[in-house]
Design brief:
The protein is an alpha/beta fold and 297 residues long. The protein has twelve helices and ten strands. Strands 3-2-1-4-5-6-7-8 form an eight-stranded mixed sheet. The structure holds acetoacetyl-coenzyme A and nicotinamide-adenine-dinucleotide.
């Protein structure tokens, strides 16, 4: 398949990442189907896309007509067959659970034309492992976007053990058509960015758990001291504490290295369904304006 043959993209998952990926694909001119498991998740994803595009109209980056054209290219659905109909590339952004991803991949492998490419937006999970759930390991690849997708310019491309060079070249060209820059990463748990980022984020939680600093002061220290755009606790709430815990546990099990062990505090927060911005509460309480830092002592 050549990049000019790619007309329709299916995005699986309409959550934090899926709606952003659908947004940038439609903005680049592709027909997009965005599938989630419940109407409310599809509706939330469409609402996020609307909100982010309206922001661009307000800033004069696109016109209202262009926004309407982009929205016209996105079809939200819960029907898997409808979502997969006539697609050339699938970009998967469902929850960071290896067994669930493999179940979905083996299901869609039987539905999709053999030439369809499967690209996973996974943060950490082995591409080779997920590819083995399909009969198309040569057409299976990692295409790791960063949050928020419309703004962050990187895509990490990860080849699995049998990913073909043709698949790599196509996904590299597709990433660039989406306005992204790419790096090629040899498969390892957490790839490149999260290999470095996770220990940093987990140590931030340990720092709170041990009472070294308050949420507000630790975020302030990192934004002012290291010039990060967001402090680590704000970033954790932005990424999702549930997703972060999934990634940490996966990397810990793969590396058997304590630098990826999850702090008890993080696990407790996720068990309490305090996922961060997406659940309304994490290290900050988002029901307050501005969001209020939580006290942990
Ligand atoms: N979705 C889309 N666009 C958003 C957004 C969102 N959630 N939040 C802000 N923006 C846009 C704004 O519209 C604005 O756009 P323009 O530049 O066109 O005006 C721009 O981002 C800046 O927004 P703000 O001025 O409101 O706020 P900011 O300057 O603080 O930027 C931010 C917001 C871009 C999110 C910035 O805080 C940032 O870059 N934070 C770090 C994000 C980060 O580290 N992401 C990687 C996480 S790790 C990951 O993604 C990998 C994984 O597997 C977990
Ligand atoms: P999220 O929880 O916001 O969204 C996941 C979505 O998957 C939910 O809407 C859920 O209903 C949906 N889903 C679950 N099972 C499904 C199925 N069988 N079919 C279709 N949809 C299904 O999570 P997220 O943050 O968007 O993460 C999605 C993927 O992207 C994960 O692999 C994650 O590691 C990766 N990722 C996340 C970030 C981040 O900052 N959050 C950054 C890069 C990559």
């Amino acid at each position: 398949m050549k990049i000019e043959d790619v007309k329709k993209i299916c995005v699986l998952g309409a959550g934090l990442m899926g709606n952003g990926i659908a947004h940038v694909c439609a903005q680049a001119g592709f027909q997009v189907s965005m599938r989630d498991i419940e109407d409310r998740f599809v509706d939330n994803g469409m609402a996020m896309i609307n909100k982010n595009l309206s922001r661009e109209v307000k800033k004069g980056k696109i016109t209202q007509d262009q926004m309407n054209e982009i929205l016209g290219r996105i079809h939200g659905t819960t029907d898997m067959k409808e979502a997969l109909n006539g697609v050339d590339v699938i970009i998967e952004a469902i929850i960071e659970n290896r067994d669930l991803k493999c179940k979905v991949y083996s299901e869609i492998d039987q539905i999709c034309d053999p030439n369809v490419i499967f690209a996973s937006n996974t943060s950490s999970i082995s591409i080779t492992d997920m590819a083995s759930a399909t009969k198309r390991p040569d057409k299976f690849i990692g295409m790791h976007f960063f949050n928020p997708v419309p703004i962050m310019r990187l895509v990490e491309i990860i080849k699995g053990y049998e990913t073909s060079d043709e698949t790599y070249r196509l996904i590299d060209q597709l990433s660039k058509k989406l306005g992204k820059e790419t790096v090629l990463v040899n498969e390892a748990p957490g790839f490149a960015v999260n290999r470095l980022l996770l220990p940093f984020l987990l140590e931030a939680v340990f720092t709170i758990q041990e009472g070294v600093a308050s949420v507000e002061d630790l975020d302030k220290a990192i934004t002012l001291g290291l010039n990060h755009p967001m402090g680590p606790l704000t970033l954790l709430d932005f990424v999702g504490l549930d997703t972060t815990l999934f990634i940490a546990d996966y990397m810990h099990s793969e590396f058997q290295d304590s630098k990826y062990r999850a702090p008890t505090l993080l696990r407790k927060m996720v068990r309490a369904k305090h996922f961060g911005r997406k659940s309304g509460i994490g290290f900050y309480d988002y029901s307050k304006t501005p969001p209020e830092p939580r006290l942990f002592r």
